[in-house]
């Protein structure tokens, strides 16, 4: 399917041990920022758990002792200080993008989010025109908090709308009302945010074609310049998965998801949006999410927070998941990283193909081996790749190809 809701995995992968001080190989440090550098900040707090969510998040009752919202910003700043020591005399050129995700980052006081951003700027420096995004649930922001965030330097906000249909929101266990997301989007515009995104989920059991059409219409009317739309994926261990196993709800249909994707492309295209990644549409090139493009094009980023992943110079690592363990390691002066891996050239090539094929900018044919180029030719002949782009040496998905993106990727890799 063209898009899936991506979550931090319930179980972190295995890897090699990380030195207590978090030190990196010299070659990785020398390469930092060669393709750009971003910072991701994970805020693991939620007011309640949505039924479909498998992200590394915690409600107040799940936190236990040793971690709290009140002290969380201090822990993040402690990891940032450690990161500065690790990179030492080989810091990134400057920070191109910052993305604060979750969880619900805006459950933290706006002043704490401002303090974290200021810490990043003081540590490495924000590039001129840096993109600074925070995610938010619609009910977790007010006109006043949005103005505080904008004044602190946040330029972009991504709001979790998911649907405009009350019944769909109920199945997903969302707490906001059907109209709150678009109202929050307008408030963000009024507060001066340069870019506003609304997230949609399609294919929820019980969602009708009319429900999704109404959601798309509300998104367009809200005046946002970016839309993300993901097919619902049912994660093991979630409340939604349990309800489906008990037969209370039907499992999502691939055919319905494909119909919803086509509806999104039609409605958003008619409203002036263009796809730039399989699950993302923007009104202009300037409205595309630069932080996500950084991920998709193999750049470097440092992930701050419990469960956050980082990538620097071909080394990838991930932090301990629970906020209590995270805070405890930092209080001891130790790295919160649980394990890491060094990507081989073959692994880097595989990830490069998997991610860049999903971009409207395409993948250069020249990066494929002989078998991959043969697969690309078959995909072009099957109408899955744009023939004009192919003639220019690029692998670019057609609309039908976007529906079958995973199959195309498999044909391009050994």
Q: What does this protein structure show overall?
A:
Helix 8 (209-221) links the parallel strand 5 and strand 6. The protein is α/β, with parallel strands linked by helices. Mean pLDDT is 94; it is low at 1-9. The chain is globular and about 55 Å long. The chain folds into 2 domains: 26-296, Alpha-Beta Barrel (TIM Barrel), CATH 3.20.20; 344-414, no CATH class. It has helices at 26-31, 60-63, 69-87, 110-124, 143-152, 166-171, 180-190, 209-221, 239-245, 254-270, 290-296, 323-331, 345-356, 370-381, 387-391, 399-403, 405-412; strands spanning 37-43, 95-102, 126-136, 156-162, 195-202, 226-231, 274-277, 280-282, 300-304, 309-312, 315-319, 337-342, 363-364, 394-395. The chain has 17 helices and 14 strands. The strands form 3 sheets. Strands 7-8-6-5-4-3-2-1-9 form a 9-stranded mixed beta sheet, with helices on both faces. A 3-stranded antiparallel beta sheet has the order 10-11-12. It has a two-stranded antiparallel ribbon with strand order 13-14. The longest helix has 19 residues, at 69-87. One of its GO terms (cellular component) is cytoplasm.
């Amino acid at each position: 399917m063209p898009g899936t809701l991506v979550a931090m995995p319930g179980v972190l992968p295995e890897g090699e041990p990380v030195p207590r001080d978090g030190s990196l190989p010299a070659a990785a440090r020398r390469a930092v920022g060669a393709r750009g550098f971003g910072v991701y900040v994970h805020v693991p707090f939620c007011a309640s758990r949505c039924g479909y969510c498998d992200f590394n998040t915690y409600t107040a009752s799940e936190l236990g002792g040793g971690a709290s919202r009140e002290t969380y910003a201090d822990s993040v700043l402690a990891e940032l200080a450690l990161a500065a020591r690790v990179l030492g005399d080989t810091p990134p050129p400057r920070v191109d993008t910052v993305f604060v995700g979750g969880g619900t980052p805006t459950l933290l006081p706006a002043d704490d989010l401002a303090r974290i951003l200021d810490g990043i700027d003081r540590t490495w420096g924000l590039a001129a025109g840096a993109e600074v995004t925070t995610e938010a649930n619609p009910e977790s922001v007010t006109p006043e908090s949005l103005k505080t965030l904008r004044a602190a330097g946040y330029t972009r906000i991504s709001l979790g709308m998911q649907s405009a249909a009350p019944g769909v929101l109920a199945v997903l266990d969302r707490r906001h009302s059907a109209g709150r997301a678009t109202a929050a989007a307008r408030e963000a515009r009024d507060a001066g945010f340069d870019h506003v995104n609304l997230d949609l989920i399609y294919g929820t059991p019980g969602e009708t074609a009319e429900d999704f059409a109404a959601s798309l219409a509300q998104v367009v009317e809200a005046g946002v310049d970016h839309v993300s739309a993901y097919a619902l994926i049912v994660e093991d261990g979630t409340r939604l998965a349990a309800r489906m196993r008990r037969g209370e709800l039907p499992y999502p249909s691939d055919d319905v998801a494909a119909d919803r994707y086509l509806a999104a492309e039609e409605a958003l295209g008619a409203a002036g949006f263009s796809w730039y990644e399989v699950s993302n549409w923007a009104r202009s090139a300037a409205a595309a999410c630069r932080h996500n493009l950084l991920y998709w094009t193999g750049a470097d980023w440092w992930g701050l927070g419990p469960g956050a992943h980082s990538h620097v110079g071909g080394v990838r690592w991930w932090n301990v998941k629970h906020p209590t363990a995270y805070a405890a390691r930092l209080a001891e002066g130790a790295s919160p990283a649980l394990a890491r891996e060094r990507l081989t050239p073959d692994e880097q090539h595989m990830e490069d193909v998997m991610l860049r094929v999903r971009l409207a900018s395409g993948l250069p044919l020249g990066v494929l081996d002989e078998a991959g180029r043969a697969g690309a030719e078959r995909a072009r002949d099957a109408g899955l790749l744009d023939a004009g782009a192919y003639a220019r040496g690029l692998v670019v998905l057609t609309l039908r190809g976007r529906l079958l993106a995973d199959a195309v990727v498999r044909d391009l890799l050994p």
